[in-house]
Every structure is written in structure tokens, then in C-alpha cells.
Amino acid sequence: MQKKSLPVGVDDFKEIIESNYYFVDKSLLIDELLSKKSKVTLLSRPRRFGKTLNMSMLNYFFSIEDRENNRKLFQGLNISKIDKMEYAGEYPVIYISLKDIKVDSWEKCLEKIKDLIVQLYRKKYFVREILKEYELEAFDKAIAGNISAAELENSLLNLSSMLERYHGQKVIILIDEYDTPLVTAHSQGYYDEAIFFFRNFLSAALKGNPYLEFSVLTGILRVAKESIFSGLNNLSVSTILDNDFNHFGLTEDEVEELLKYYELEYGLEDVKKWYNGYRFGKKLVYNPWSLINFASKSELNPYWVNTSDNSLIKELLDKNDSKVIDDLKAVFSGNEIEEVITENIIFSDLEDVDTIWSLMLFSGYLTYDRVKISEITGAKTYFLKIPNYEVQSFFKNTFIKEYSHGKTAMYFKMLEDLYKGDIKKFEYKFKELYLSAISYHDSGDSEKYYHHFMLGLLLTLGDKYIITSNRESGYGRYDIALEPKDKKNFGLIFEFKIGDKNSIHEKAKEALVQINEKKYDVAMKNNGVSKVIKIGMAFSGKDVAIESEIL
Questions:
Q1: Assigned domain for 5 exists
Q2: Could you tell me which of 185, 192, 177, 254 has the C-alpha nearest to residue 227?
């Protein structure tokens, strides 16, 4: 029997149903929306977890246009088995997606928005027949694209008024990926213009709109109310921290069914390792984009992390903050970190590195295992971790790109030499990479700087070693230690010094002597590691000296 095609890159609900693509039924989202009856609902989930497909499904379900054909799309789905089908085809719907508004200037952004509105008005051209004479000029200007920024701000409000009058029924407004233009605007330097426009654009459509039945927005972030939803008192928000609206991602049962259908069930354990691990409320879910691509190609690869430029994450990682490095060291090693999560993202707070954890959680780069509530303050802290191997590979590749400066193959070989205990080859490759990665402007006279640089360089070994820094062992505190998870392998202890160009060789020897005199290898040996490589390193600007000893 010929298998159904997989909808790789297809997020139009009608196309998936009519073309008989493989479809995981999430239609009970409709039931939950109708049952909760919120005027405006914001559904915040990571990208590629089914937001656009679900919004497309809502559009076809509620739209009064072509209602009879659209109702057929839902035959046999879960929503058709309950009493909510009476709402199918009952409302005029305005549906727009902002996911493709990713441009490098405010002028281009405004043009993209204008194009969206022009196309939307052209689709609703039929309302022209009921417009009054004084309205026709404005409508025709919109159709022709001769519309000002101020007119754009009121465009959804005005169109909802026309549609309500034409159909005699209030309007549903669906806005997919509402925050994409704002994220792009922040990274490209025109955030102030963008936030001013979108605050007015959304408020006009959603705040006190007498023609609105209800509205649904999707996005990655819950942008703070004071930033964009000011005065919108009828907003109901569901994020990955909540237990409602869990119709995104794939459950374990859905994944098992998919793998069985495509005769790939033999790979379930590997699929779990690569793509499972996300917690949405009380549910554990898989990344659907990665699962569909895996089932299509039968290859375990990082699919999801390659679908975006990850600009905000990279911007924050580039700050090279010591706490961020220390916490990343922990999650790279498979451990949890405890962080306070801010549900409302304010873009001005992105200068604060603490915001990185909220951003990484809501964007899907981290997940949470459990929540702790303070008995004194009531504050919530979340225990965060990397969800799966696919995301771990993203972090590794990000660090590799940062530290290798294009010499990725050499970076991998250098780490292999270190893992095998071939310190001479490690030293040769390290010095070459170091020259590329460090500039006189970056480096300084602080040992802390070099400590962070080396820690970042070594973090990608977290699956092979337990990486610690500034821990007590013997008679002092070593700089960095890598204890092998397989006790038969070499352990590694690093100690760093700074000096001038003429003294760094003596300083490197000094560092090695300190490892021995302070007996920094005691804790590792007590844990069953018999072979330990001791490495003393000294830095001066772009010069480095290395002394080592294997016991």
C-alpha cells in the first residue's frame, strides 16, 4: 500500500487534507477556544511546532466564505464528533501572517506590511458593493496600495467594520507570528519605529473593536503588555508554562503511530534522544518539524535548529558573560540550572543577560523539568535543561563557529587530540586557532578573561566529561577540570597564568608546578580516574605557552 506523503513545508490545512498528506489531528483546539470564549487569545509556542497550520485550520473552520466546501475538510476529525460543528462557516475571518516580515530597515518593513494589507483587501473585494460613497475612495486607495502609515494602523479595524456589515456577523481576526517583525526590528536596529506602529495597529483591531467576535494571535514570545498590548484588558495568554491549549507538538502516542505507519518504529529510542524532551505545561512533546523531516528522509539530523537565523540567541551568547558561560557549562554536561523566568519579554531588557534564559526557554532551546515556588516571596524558579540532542548540537555548533573562526575541521581534530591525550598535537592546533580567535583588542591582563575563553572552548566536550571550574581539590582550587565519564579515559586539569611575552614559558611551568604541589588531581583520582593529564598554560596577548605532564 502506498504511504501518504509527509507535509514537509506545507502549512495550509486545506492543502494537507485535500492532498491526503499525513495529518495529526489537532482540531480540538477549536473546541477549547470556543469553550473558553476569550475575546483575545495569545498562544505563545516555539517556531515550527504547528502554530501556522493550526491557524490555517481555524481560518478554514470558521470562515463564512466557501463554507460548505470548508466543512467537508473536517469530516472524520475529532471536532466533527462533538457539538462544535455548528460554528463552522459562521463568521467572516481576517487572517494574516507576519512570519515573513524579516527585513533590515523600517521602510522595508512598512512596505511588507502594506503589501499584506493590499492583498487582504483584494481578497475581500466583494465588500465594495455595500460601501457608501465616502468609503469607496479609501477602499480603492487600499486596493491600489496608496495607503499611508496612519491608514495602515486602522486597516484591520476598518476591514472588520466592512465585513461585519456585509455578512451581518461579527468578525474573527487571526494573526500568525505577530512578534516576528518585532524580533527582526530589534536585531536590525529599528525597534522604536516598529513597536510604535504595531502598538497602534493591534490596539485598533483588538481593543474595543465593536465588530470583533474574538481574535487569536500566535508567536514565540509573550511581548510585555506595556510594550505592545497597552490597555488591552481582554487578553488571555497561554505559554509553554501553562496547562491549557496543548495542541502543539507531537505526543509520545502520536510519534509512535507516525513511526509505525512509516515502518520506522525501530528508531523510536534514537528519535526520543534527538527530538523529544519539550515540556508544554504537564505534557512532554516532540518537535513536529524534526519528526516529519526524519520520517521523510529516515536520517537523524538537526532539522529544526537550521530553520532560523537564531539572531537573538546568538546576540545574547556573544556577550560572553561569566554566569552565562558557567550555566551553559552545566546544561552542556546534562545538568539543570535554576533560573527565574520572566513571562513578559521587554526588548529593552535584552541588554540584561538574565533575560537569555527566558528567551531560550520560550524559543525552544531549553525546556524545564520542574518549578520551585518560594515559601517567602512566592517567586517561581524553573529548573532548565537542554531538551534533546538536536538542540545540544546547535549549542555545540554555535560555540564551534565562535571559537574556530572558520577552522571547524581543525577545532574538531584539536579536541580529538586532547581526548586521546596527544598534547603535542593539541598544542600545535590550539596555538593556530588561538591566533585567529584572539585579538589584542579582546585580550587583556585579566586571567579571568582567558579562563572564560578556555571554558567556552572546552564546553563542547560536555557529553564526554564532567566539566568543572574553580572547585576545591587537594590544597586549593584548580582553574578547569574535565573528569571523564568513562573512568578508563584521561582526566584533564588546567591551570592558567598571565605574564609578558618573555616570561610566559616560565609562567606555564609555574602553573604546572602548582597543579602538582596543590594536588589538584586528588578528587579525580578518588573518583576512580587513574590517568590524569596536567596542563599549565600562560597567556600574553596573542602569545601562549603550554606545559603538560601525564601521570
A1: no
A2: 192
For residue 395, being part of any structural domain is answered with: no
Cα separation, 102 vs 109, in Å, equals 7
Q: How many residues does the chain have?
A: 551
Helices marked H in 333-375 — which ranges? 355-363
pLDDT confidence of residue 411: 87
As a whole number of Å, the end-to-end CA separation of the chain is 62
Alpha carbon distance 43, 192 (integer Å): 24
DSSP result, 278-333: EEETTEEEB-HHHHHHHHHH------GGGSS--HHHHHHHTT--HHHHHHHHHHHT
CB-CB neighbours of 482 under 10 Å: 25
Greatest Cα pair distance in the chain: 92
Residue 85 sits in the same domain as residue 219:
yes
Whether residue 330 sits in one domain with residue 232? no
Q: Nearest-5° angle of CA 346, CA 351, CA 357?
A: 70
Statement to judge: residues 333 and 302 lie in one domain: no
Are both 139 and 279 inside the same structural domain?
no
Q: Which domain holds residue 330?
A: 311-388
DSSP state at residue 6: P
522 in the same domain as 452: yes
What's the whole-model pTM score? 0.83
How many structural domains compose the chain? Answer: 4
Confidence (pLDDT) at 305: 73
pLDDT of the residue at 314: 64
Is 297 in the same domain as 362?
A: no
Domain match, 37 and 24 both: yes
Helix, strand, coil in percent for the chain, rounding step 5: 50, 15, 35
Block means of pLDDT (10 residues each) for the chain, 551 residues, are: 90 96 97 94 93 98 96 96 95 96 95 95 95 89 89 94 96 96 88 91 92 95 69 83 94 95 89 93 93 93 74 61 71 80 71 76 90 81 91 76 74 90 91 72 62 80 85 87 92 92 92 94 92 93 88 70
Tell me, what's the pLDDT at 59? 98
